[in-house]
Amino acid sequence: MSEKKSEARDRTPIYIALIGATATLAAALIAIAPNFLRPSAPQPLPPPATVSGQIAPTVALLKFVLVNNSEFAQDFYIDNTFAEAINSGTYVVLTIPPGDYTLTTCARGANPIKQPENCSATDTKVRVHDNPYLWHIYGNQQASGQMTYLAVNQSNTPRDLFIDGTFKTTVPANDFVALTLPATEHVGQDCTQGKTPQTSPEQCHPPTNDFPFTVLIKIIETQ
Question: How many structural domains does the chain have?
Answer without folding.
Answer: 2
